[in-house]
Task: structure prediction
Amino acid sequence: MGRNKLRIAVIDDETFYIQDVYSKIENFKQSFHDIDIEVDTFTQGKEFLDSFEEHPYDLIYLDIELNDINGVHLAHMIHEKKASTMIIFMTSHMSYIHQSYVVNAFQYLTKPLKDPLFTYELKRAIKHYQYMQKAFVFPTSQGRIIFNLSEIIYLETAYKNYKIHTTRGVYYGSLKAVNSIRKALLDYTFVKIQRSFIVNMEHIVKVDNILLYMSDESMLMVSKKRYKEFKRRFYQFLADKK
Result:
């Protein structure tokens, strides 16, 4: 089996910054060989979306102030299609930075881009990507299936069975067969919101008090008993991404 490939997109309507980011990544690749990196560049958000439909990206450097579409709006569209995609906003104006928190961005960088910080954030993004590629084997009614952490949206249990909601669809199996996996998931980006529900915080698109809007368009509720712990874990999750 070959190594994982990190697919990166750079979206900016200024050619200078397109070339700057591309050059920084290419220079980084010369001394970093732990993962294969592929880079595509776009000067328009709509052009990028056409490509993203066919080949989703893992990491996106996104200018907030695009000519044809608002960068924050584009980020919302990206996460609706693939919630695990990391977005690093780029902006010349500090006043835009607070908007990066609205869409759960991985990070933001101010222009002009500084080499040490750019390299640090790229390494951090790669580490997060590799972390999310960790896989678990689930015994399902359709046989044993391997899911990466990034593919699992949430897991629910009922009586002696479980249902796993993933980016590939919904699968069922015996609860007894996944008890150890359920416990292991809590050591990663997963949190228990009810006795029978464990969700991947990477796939939370929006939080409205006790309601969670997930990337598969489902809406889940945090129980009163679990709410305090959920808030603590989720805020820590957001802080760790900054």
